[in-house]
Specification:
Elements (H helix, E strand, L loop, with lengths): L12 H24 L4 H4 L13 H4 L7 H22 L1 H31 L4 H16 L7 H11 L6 H14 L4 E3 L6 E3 H18 L8 H21 L2
Antiparallel strand pairs: 1-2
Helix pairs in contact: 1-4, 4-5, 4-8, 5-7, 5-8, 5-10, 6-7, 8-9, 8-10, 9-10
Length: 245
């Protein structure tokens, strides 16, 4: 009899459980949607605080939700590659604290910039148009519709499209890896050349900052959340260093 160990065998406990939990959340989303016609993202994704769908608990649940399999795969691949190294270096307790803080911090920064976008959006609408979006916008999106007025449509997206994914925490992990193992060489896929971890992280950070500014609310990628995970990760690592933790 041939025995093949599980792909998760040998992983440190927090990394392994995060991989499993994220996978189960996506599976549950599919099952509940197919069986009951209910979208769990409506309850567990992170909405803008002035949306009717907002719940403070979403600051924690959003990072376990993903839009689709590929979204989950790339986040979990990065967690698998770099998270296990950090957990082994820090230990499970410190690693999970870092993961949660960077995930929540990512959401905070994303919503801060979304708040600016919210006020820019309502500045070009009258009170009646704003009221209509509040009354009808969420239901329209659930029916895969939106307003024909582009300003109302944009406001509806700001108000009623949730943020999902572990990307903020994952970018925090990338930042930590780059700071703690700066000279480790990583192999890029495109182009296939080696690059030191510290330069890889720098390039990623600059790219996310650029895309966050250039594509402000114009795409479905939470660039400011990615940057937020890195910013909060940097602050936390420096704080731990100062306190000798």
């Amino acid at each position: 009899m041939n025995y093949r160990p599980s792909p998760l065998a040998g992983l440190p406990p927090v990394t392994k459980n995060l991989l499993i939990i994220n996978g189960l959340f996506l599976l549950a989303t599919w099952v509940v949607k197919t069986t009951f016609g209910l979208d769990l993202t409506r309850f567990l994704g992170l909405y803008f605080p002035l949306s009717e769908n907002f719940n403070p608990a979403q600051f924690g649940t959003y990072m376990f939700m993903h839009a689709d399999f590929m979204h989950l795969f790339f986040n979990m691949f990065a967690l698998f590659m770099f998270g296990r190294v950090l957990e082994t270096y820090w230990g499970p307790k410190k690693f999970i604290v870092y993961y949660i803080i960077t995930g929540v911090g990512a959401a905070v920064l994303q919503l801060a910039f979304k708040y600016i976008d919210y006020h820019n959006a309502i500045s070009v609408l009258n009170e009646q148009e704003i009221a209509i979006v509040y009354e009808q916008g969420a239901q329209a999106l659930r029916e895969f519709k939106n307003f024909t007025n582009p300003d109302m449509a944009h406001f509806n997206l700001v108000l009623n499209i949730p943020m999902v994914g572990a990307s903020g925490a994952v970018f925090g992990i990338l930042l930590a890896f780059g700071m703690l193992f700066p000279n480790t060489e990583l192999m890029l896929l495109f182009p296939p050349i080696p690059i030191k971890a510290k330069y890889f992280v720098m390039l990623y950070g600059v790219a996310e900052l650029f895309m966050g500014v250039a594509n402000f609310s114009m795409d479905n990628v939470a660039h400011w959340a990615h940057l937020g995970g890195m910013v909060f990760g940097f602050i936390l690592i420096k704080y731990w260093d100062k306190k000798g933790i």
